Amino acid sequence: MQAQSRRKPYDEINITPMLDLAYVLLIIFIIMTTAAVQGIKVNVPKASSSVSLAKPTTKAITVDSAGQVYLDTYPVTIDELESQLRSFKAVTPDFPVVIKGDRVSQYGRIMEVLDACGRVGITQLGLVSERAKG
Predict the structure, then answer these.
(1) Residue 47: per-residue pLDDT
(2) Cα–Cα distance for residue pair 102/67, rounded to 1 Å
(3) pLDDT tens across 67-126, in order?
(4) Which residues pair with 125 in a beta bridge?
(5) What is the 3-state secondary structure (H, E, C) of 43-78?
(6) Separation between Cα atoms, residue 109 and residue 66, nearest integer Å
(7) Cβ distance 33 to 41 under 8 Å?
(8) What distances in angstroms separate CA 24 from CA 17, 37, 56, 107, 118, one per listed residue?
(9) What is the pLDDT of residue 8?
(10) Which of 131, 132, 116 lies closest to 77 in space, CA to CA?
(11) From the CA atom positions of the chain, what is the Rg in Å?
């Protein structure tokens, strides 16, 4: 009876096998997720961190509320606009144009600007608007 009284019950939990299992499952999960991502390896170009010295090629055409047309910030007529756009197209064949019209500007004037862009052959054309608040 003395042998039984000397034995103490084992009341501590051994967590080593549980951690081993968790680590094995973690490694299996990592291997399976990286193997599931498929694709072709390519050498992607690295972007330069220096500031580009090239002039921006986007041209902004603005029609104000009085119907005056501006190319960037210079007032022009429709004929002058078309000739300047042709000269820009000769230098940069695929430059984008952005048209900004005042809220109360004449729709016909904006259509004249769009028509001039179409005659020049501009394919990248955008209209500027404000995001609706709400």
Answers:
(1) 62
(2) 9
(3) 888 888 888 999 998 999 899 888 887 888 888 887 777 778 888 888 998 898 888 888
(4) 97
(5) CCCCCCCCCCCCCCCCEEEEECCCCCEEECCEEECH
(6) 10
(7) no
(8) 11, 21, 55, 69, 65
(9) 73
(10) 116
(11) 35
DSSP code of 40? -
β pairing state of 74-76 and 69-71: antiparallel
Contact between 58 and 98 (Cβ < 8 Å): yes
Q: Report pLDDT for 31.
A: 83
Is residue 120 exposed (0-12), middle (13-18) or buried (19+ Cβ within 10 Å)? middle
pLDDT at 25: 93
Burial 100-111 (b: 16+ CB within 10 A, else e): bbeeebeeebbe
DSSP labels, 70-110: EETTEEE-HHHHHHHHHHHHHH-TT--EEEEE-TTS-HHHH
